[in-house]
Amino acid sequence: MSLLQLAIIATLQGLTEWLPISSSGHVLLASDFFGVTGRDELLINAVSNLGTLAAMLIYFRKDIARLLIGVLELVMSPRSKMPLSPAARLVVCVIVATPVALAAGLLYEVALPESVQDAMRSVYVVAGATIIFGALLWWADIAGPRTRKEDDMTIAHAALIGATQAIAAIIPGTSRSGITMTAARFLGYERTEAARVSMLIGAPILAAAGLYGAYGLFTADADSGAVLTFSDGMIVAVIAFVTGLASIWFLMSLLKRMSFLPFVLYRFLLGALLLLGSPMVGLF
What we know:
This protein has one domain (3-283). It is built from 14 helices and no strands.
């Protein structure tokens, strides 16, 4: 695998992880096109996920600092008996939002037969999910007033937003960030708040995916035909970090001025191109 191909996959991961357009769909298609499999695929997935996670932690460093303080407050709350601060309540929301998606990801990896996983990775599934969940994002974005902020978040809201990640864990092309932003918009959160809350809630799942990929990398068969080195992995991580940081900045800047419509149109176009470029089209 050439350095250019490696850079393309890492750039796709970084640019699309936090945008509501499905990083898994883009990276899956690129990996299949370049023939990346086995330990090489595990290496790319693990380090690119951790690279984009680091980008989010840097961009939202003030929120992360608040969350760390909230964790300490939550630990001390049984003794202090004080009402929880907004930071501590946000920690509770992040915790509540995580288990369903984590269980779905584990179920997909452990319980689903490999044949089913291969079927879920098909271009038709990716294209269909790209279009369908793009339409849901558009509907959620335009339907009614959306003025809620983080302070309005309830445990039920967090659980619902977090649970939608389970769909993205199973169906490539859904977009984990996209479906959580869709859920947040349906629940009445303003655009930038929907995006910010989506990223904070998604951080544990992304960290789990990166660590799981790293575990798979270290436990995989060393003779599985891998050609990538750990230095290649570091290149992927750096590229994913830089492009991930740029994409978060772009998303938050754009949503201050306009709607999610550009991402919806992109999803429709991508889905159509995938279907038009599929082998079945030539049979009709």
